[in-house]
Write a structure and sequence with these properties.
The complex is a heterodimer of chains A (465) and B (193).
Chain A (H helix, E strand, L loop, with lengths): L12 H6 L5 E7 L6 E8 L10 E10 L7 E2 L19 E5 L6 E5 L7 E6 L1 H8 L2 E9 L2 E8 L12 E4 L6 E4 L13 E4 L4 E4 L14 H5 L6 E6 L4 E7 L4 E9 L7 E9 L5 E9 L2 E10 L2 E2 L7 H4 L3 E2 L3 E6 L5 E6 L4 E6 L7 E7 L22 E3 L5 E5 L4 H7 L7 E7 L5 E10 L5 E7 L15
Antiparallel strand pairs in A: 1-2, 1-30, 2-3, 4-5, 5-6, 6-7, 8-9, 9-10, 10-11, 12-13, 13-14, 14-15, 16-17, 17-18, 18-19, 20-21, 22-23, 23-24, 24-25, 26-27, 27-28, 28-29
Chain B lengths: L2 H11 L2 H29 L6 H21 L15 H12 L1 H20 L4 H38 L2 H6 L4 H18 L2
Helix pairs in contact in B: 1-2, 1-6, 2-4, 2-5, 2-6, 3-5, 3-8, 5-6, 5-8
Classes of the chains: A mainly beta (465), B mainly alpha (193).
Chain lengths: 465, 193
């Protein structure tokens, strides 16, 4: 417990943007075949440092087969805000779930170069206390740390629907399920909220048998993956409305609400439209007490020769963009969209959330294009997990999607990478030639967190003024 | 107590009116919490010959709560379940959970004790009405003081200081608060002769 608020408490998105820039990034490393334990890489992102773009410390876990994916902070600006009941916490621990093992690690990064494991929550505890499995997204919220899960109970995670559970934000004890009334929600992926407006939005990927051993083409072509958004009364823990984006809009993944809590809109990325292989971005908003959603960006597939395509795509003679991650800058101005299939990172100006405009684009990797980094190195896969610096000037991303899916779309082991692009004053995106993080052999790279908070973890209780 | 919530409400609505409405709601909730604690004691004072025991009991209660808060430094999670729009309810519960009303009890009993010593032996019903009146005054004075100090901070932050002030001005007073409960209880114990 501190006597003063944590220095990384930012009352508003604007104050967060004005805070000192990050000097370190935290990136998850996973062993795709489970032959090595997964780990957390601490990456130097300070351009004035001699070790810029290098891994300066690693925390390697004591178990194998966890499959690290997403992770988050124990406390963000919302939890550190006065009157939340735990305002004097520190933004100090990273909560890292194993999506395959359901084990959760709490890593203490107070001294980042000596980061170490603080606590391990074994899968049995998660199963017993929640009936859920395969923990995914982490956000700190009003009642503690909220964790979304992709699976229900039982060996294959299909015994009951997946959902969200809550952990104590100080002791990291698993408390129990979040939902009181889940309504029609039966799949789960991401979630985020607007705290002063007291709502939450959640999305759907698929059930464990639909992803653990790889994408199931029959399920995709018969539109059996998730395609709905759920809107919740956050504190009543009640699903108040479900919007179906249409069954062909398969896999509604990242939910990115506007950071400024005055705004009642946000975005969601859809991986693929099974009727035409397009990727899409949807804008959702509240009007007249009801929720609405509309497709505001479509990204077309690119024609390709069957010979250049992996088995799964040969029949289509096209490479789908595969929108696998999106991220919104803290000023709610630019939305970054990973096109993991075509190997492109798009930057949209979303000042008018209903009319996003393409403002910048970088080509790197890709199933067919295999565009090289400006330093001449291969990127292996496509742009995937993307994280934006708080000031909005730098965008970082890695290249792996999910072990078994990587192997289907990008067969063979192609090496982990993390790159960074600089953002122009009026938009535009240029890869930084000097930033290319290489990872230890056999690992792939996934989500990135930035020192002092970033654009996909911080929630704010006060509007920017 | 709770003034940053009023600032948030006003900024969310982009209206100065919301600031004052929110401060009023916070004050009303607080006042209610004071009343809820003080009135039972006002009624108890009817048992005038037990006054000494009541005062000792109240002082011990306050010390007990202080000691509890000293060791249990965790905040009540139920407060987080109150929607941000229900400020009066939040204020009521927060004041209850922190023992703000309880802290007033020894002070209140002290005042009543002094008044009675002056009044001599008046009719029991008059005594009770008088005690209730004092309870109202104590609750109002306390709430006004709180609302005024919180209001000054809220208005200042909203109009001039900006939200950066929030991070600069906020201190962890949990320990100080727990200790002050113990001190108030101890003083009143000492004062009961």
């Amino acid at each position: 417990m501190n006597l003063r608020p944590d220095p990384t408490f930012h009352a508003t998105p604007k104050l967060a943007m004005e805070a000192p820039a990050e000097t370190l990034a935290f990136t998850l490393m996973l062993s795709p075949d489970g032959s090595q334990p997964d780990g957390l890489a601490i990456v130097d992102v300070d351009p004035s440092s001699d070790t810029f773009g290098q891994i300066v410390h690693q925390v390697i876990m004591p178990n194998k087969g966890d499959e690290f994916h997403h992770f988050g902070w124990n406390a963000c600006s919302s939890a550190l805000s006065p009157l939340t009941g735990h305002a004097f916490l520190e933004r100090r621990y990273l909560i890292i779930p194993g999506i395959r093992s359901s084990r959760i690690y709490v890593v203490d990064v107070k001294e980042p170069l000596k980061a170490k494991i603080h606590k391990i929550i074994e899968p049995e505890e998660v199963f017993a206390k929640t009936g859920y499995s395969r923990p995914h997204t982490i956000h700190c919220g009003p009642e503690g740390i909220y964790v979304s899960t992709l699976g229900g109970g039982g060996k294959d995670g299909t015994d009951g629907p997946p959902g969200i559970f809550i952990m104590d934000c100080e002791s990291f004890e698993v408390i129990g399920r979040y939902e009181i009334d889940r309504g029609p929600q039966d799949k789960q992926y991401d979630f985020w909220w607007n705290l002063p407006r007291d709502y939450m939005v959640s999305s759907e990927w698929g059930l464990p048998p639909q992803f653990e051993n790889g994408l199931v083409p029959e399920d995709l072509l018969s539109d059996k993956y998730g395609h709905r958004l759920h809107f919740w009364n956050l504190r009543e823990r009640k699903n108040v409305q479900t919007i179906d984006l249409g069954e062909s809009h398969q896999m509604a993944l990242e939910v990115r609400p506007a950071h400024d809590p005055v705004k009642e809109y946000g975005f969601c990325g859809v991986v693929v439209d099974t009727t035409n292989l397009e990727g899409s971005i949807w804008t959702w908003w509240r009007e007249g007490g009801k929720w609405h959603a509309k497709k505001t960006v479509t990204i077309p597939p690119q024609p390709a020769k069957a010979d250049d395509l992996p088995d799964m795509l040969k029949g289509f003679e096209a490479v789908p963009p595969l929108v696998t991650d999106i991220d919104l800058s803290l000023d709610d101005r630019f939305l970054y969209v990973s096109c993991w299939g075509t190997g492109e990172m798009h930057q949209y100006d979303v000042s008018d959330p209903m009319k996003p405009k393409l403002a910048g684009k970088v080509e790197i990797g890709g199933i067919v294009k295999k565009a090289k980094h400006p330093n001449g190195k291969d990127f292996g896969y496509g742009p995937q997990m993307v994280e934006i610096s708080r000031d909005g000037k730098r965008v970082y991303w890695t290249n792996s999607l999910y072990s078994t899916w990587d192997d289907q779309f990008y067969p063979g082991d192609r090496g982990a990478a993390m790159v960074m692009a600089n953002v122009g004053g009026k938009g535009g995106l240029t890869l930084d030639k000097n930033f290319y993080v290489e990872f230890p052999k056999g690992y792939r790279s996934h989500q990135i967190r930035l020192e002092g908070g970033d654009c996909s973890t911080d929630s704010f209780c006060y509007p920017s003024v | 107590m709770g003034w940053p919530l009023a600032v948030s409400a006003a900024l969310m609505d982009r209206s100065r009116g919301s600031l004052y409405n929110a401060l009023l709601a916070l004050a009303a909730g607080h006042m209610l919490a004071m009343a809820a604690i003080l009135f039972p004691f006002a009624a108890l004072l009817f048992l005038a010959e037990w006054q000494r025991e009541i005062q000792v009991g109240a002082a011990c209660l306050v010390i007990g709560l202080g000691v509890y808060l000293l060791f249990n430094r965790r905040h009540p999670r139920f407060l987080a379940r109150v929607p941000p729009s229900r400020l009066a309810l939040w204020s009521f519960l927060a004041a209850m959970a922190h023992g703000a009303g309880l802290m007033l009890v020894p002070i209140y009993l002290g005042i009543c004790g002094t008044l009675e010593a002056d009044a001599g032996h008046v009719a029991a019903s008059d005594l009770m009405a008088g005690n209730a009146g004092v309870a109202v005054i104590v609750a109002v004075v306390h709430t006004l003081a709180m609302a005024f100090s919180g209001g000054v901070l809220a208005v200042g932050t909203y109009h001039w200081l900006g939200l950066r002030f929030l991070a600069k001005s906020w201190f962890n007073l949990d320990l100080v608060w727990a200790l002050s409960l113990i001190v108030v209880g101890a003083i009143s114990l000492f004062a009961v002769r």
